[in-house]
């Protein structure tokens, strides 16, 4: 029973720690870049993965990131010296992607942004 309780505490701790990165922080971060120069953003987070031009002559900068998380998915029950009990814990690997789109005007100012996928920020 103590082992099961300790595994639950470890699992919950992992969930709490992983909860530090949130989607709300991601939105706040990039809302703050609207109206600023794209070169300042590039200096801060690096070069984009790709760019393309729109029919209105605006340019879109695309950043794509992947994230691999390991999350607990359930205890492994086995039979031991003292009978049945928890002998370990299963983990599931989950890959998620985030694609960030930043649209700039002819002067290089960020006019709007959008995203696809699971986007988180600290």
Give a structural overview.
It comes from Sulfurovum zhangzhouensis. This is Lipoprotein. Keywords: Signal. Residues 1-21 form the signal peptide. It is a single chain. The chain is built from three helices and four strands, in the order αααββββ. The longest helix is centred in the N-terminal third of the chain and has 17 residues, at 2-18. 7% of the residues are buried. A hairpin with a 5-residue loop joins strand 1 and strand 2. The protein is an alpha+beta fold and 122 residues long. It has a four-stranded antiparallel β-sheet. 28% of the residues lie in helices and 46% in strands. It has one domain (2-117).
Name the overall outline: rod-shaped
Average pLDDT over all residues: 83
Estimated radius of gyration: 22 Å
Beta-strand segment tally = 4
Secondary structure category: alpha+beta
End-to-end distance: 36 Å
- Individual helix count: 3
Task: List the domain count as a whole number.
Answer: 1
Largest sheet descriptor: 4 strands, antiparallel
Strand order of the largest sheet: 1-2-3-4
Task: Outline the low-pLDDT stretches.
Answer: none
The share of residues in helices is 25-40%
Task: Report strand %.
Answer: over 45%
Order of helices and strands: HHHEEEE
